[in-house]
């Protein structure tokens, strides 16, 4: 089990950390705040009178805007 943890940490260190150093603007994007700036709400399902434009925090939640 310890060897799996070691390889997981190694994989994280090799792939994710260099990407955040090279492209810091992508790691700091808060989709929930961007949805609220556009007068939207993060919901699991949008009503018929709303338009779904993007995902919020998880792929299951959508940013819903009023028509």
UniProtKB/TrEMBL annotation:
Keyword terms: Antibiotic, Antimicrobial, Defensin, Disulfide bond, Secreted, Signal
Localization terms from the record: Secreted
Any Pfam family the entry gives: Defensin_beta_2
Annotated Gene Ontology cellular component terms: extracellular space
InterPro entries: Beta_defensin_dom
GO biological process: cell chemotaxis; defense response to bacterium; innate immune response
Gene Ontology terms, MF aspect: CCR6 chemokine receptor binding; chemoattractant activity
Annotated signal peptide: 1-19
Domain Beta-defensin: 35-64
PANTHER family noted in UniProt: BETA-DEFENSIN, BETA-DEFENSIN 110
Family (UniProt): Belongs to the beta-defensin family.
Task performed by this protein: Has antibacterial activity.
UniProt name for this protein: Beta-defensin
Organism annotation: Nyctereutes procyonoides
Lineage: Eukaryota, Metazoa, Chordata, Craniata, Vertebrata
């Amino acid at each position: 089990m310890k060897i799996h943890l070691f390889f997981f940490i190694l994989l994280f260190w090799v792939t994710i950390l260099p990407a955040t150093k090279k492209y810091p603007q992508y790691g700091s994007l808060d989709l929930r705040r961007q949805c609220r700036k556009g007068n939207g709400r993060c919901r699991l399902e949008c009503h018929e009178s709303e338009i779904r434009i993007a995902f919020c925090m998880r792929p299951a939640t959508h940013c819903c805007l009023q028509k």
